[in-house]
Amino acid sequence: MAKHTTQAPVLAMTRVTDTVWQLRAGWDGPVRAGQFFMLRGWQGKDPLLGRPISVHDWGEDWVDFLFEVRGEGTRLLSALEPGDTLELTGALGNGFDTDLPAGTKVALVGGGIGVAPLLGTARALRAAGCAVTLFAGFRDEPYVLDKFEALGCDVQLATDSGRFGHKGFVTELLNPTDFDRVLVCGPEVMMEKIARACLAAKVPVFVSRESHMACGIGACLGCTCHTKNGPRSTCKDGPVFPGEVLYE
Ligand code: FES
Fold this sequence. Notes:
By secondary structure, the protein is α/β, with parallel strands linked by helices. The chain folds into two domains: 5-92, Translation factors (Elongation Factor Tu (Ef-tu), domain 3, Beta Barrel); 105-247, Rossmann fold, CATH 3.40.50.80. Helix content is 17%, strand content 36%. The protein is built from five helices and 15 strands. The strands form three sheets. A seven-stranded mixed sheet has the order 10-9-8-7-11-12-15, with helices on both faces. Strands 1-2-5-4-3-6 form a six-stranded antiparallel β-barrel. Strands 13-14 form a two-stranded antiparallel sheet. Strand 1 and strand 2 form a beta hairpin. The radius of gyration is 17 Å and the shape is globular. Residues 213-216, 218-223, 233, 235 line the site of FE2/S2 (inorganic) cluster.
């Protein structure tokens, strides 16, 4: 994949929760659901490397990122303001296959900030005429679920605290045999549990892995994961992998 880096304007920055932000940047290049960009929003400061952030949604001339502040790189991203400039490299990775027949029943399963790449995915699936159910799990307070409802998705919610939705894990809500395909993004333990349940039920499942990344294009071997076909780069061969490649 050609590496494409550009200086993009920050169009909007919205605080979604105490730790989650949404950044809209100017971008008119091609994007697919489930891809990611390397974002670098600081000049002359550490950390030198960009941060891999999944595409939340996109339009003709913009791309949205939903991210959680976890360290210095994301803290610096959250400090950007409209009018600032951001270095974008992308769109990277394979993404989710959303070119499915109308009427396909698709379950999207997101844990915490793992819901981020599922919004653009849901939009593309709904445009293809798929029936989409989002299973979302959060520690306590959910976010961005209204955007899925606005797309006509059924939304099932679980929280650890029980303050909203089902008290417990989102993995307890999904019956894989209700669906033709399951797409997952979230904590590794959640993805493995969902993937194994789907594989046991013979329902196709695809997981979007998160990894520390340096180059984002398969050059540094910093994001290698083990698959049944041998080592693969999460950034170049993924981030989306069929469940059976990782868990069988
Ligand atoms: Fe360098 Fe994936 S981040 S190979």
